[in-house]
Amino acid sequence: MKNYTYQVEDISALNKYLNSKEIFDSFSSSKSVLIQIFSSNTDKIFLTNVVEELLFAMPKALIVGSTSVGEIVHGLLQVGTTVLSISFFDDTDLKVIILNEPSGREYEVGKELMNNIRKSENNVVGILMLATPLSINVSNLFIGMSEENFTFPIFGGGAGVYEPTLTSLIFSGTNYFSSGAIAVVFLSNSLEICIKTFLGWKPLSKELTITESNGMILQKIDGENAFEVYNRYLDIPNDKNFFENALEFPILVRRNDDLIARVPFFSDENGHIGFLADIVKGEKFHIGYGDPESILHNSDLIQNELSSFEPDSIFLYACICRRFLLQNAVNLETQSFDLIAPTVGFYTYGEFFGVNGNIHLLNSTIVIAAFREGKKSHYIPEPKVDIKETFEDSGIDPFSNKHNRIITRLIHFITVVTAELEEANKKLKKISEIDKLTQINNRLKLDEVLQYEINSSERYSSELSILILDLDFFKKVNDNFGHLVGDMVLMEIGNILRLNVRETDTVGRWGGEEFLIILPKTNLNDALFVAEKIRTKVEQTQFTEVGKITCSIGVTSYIKGDNQDKLIYRADMALYEAKNSGRNRVSSKLS
Question: I need a surface site. Which of 4, 45, 99, 379 has the fewest CB within 10 A?
Answer without folding.
Answer: 45
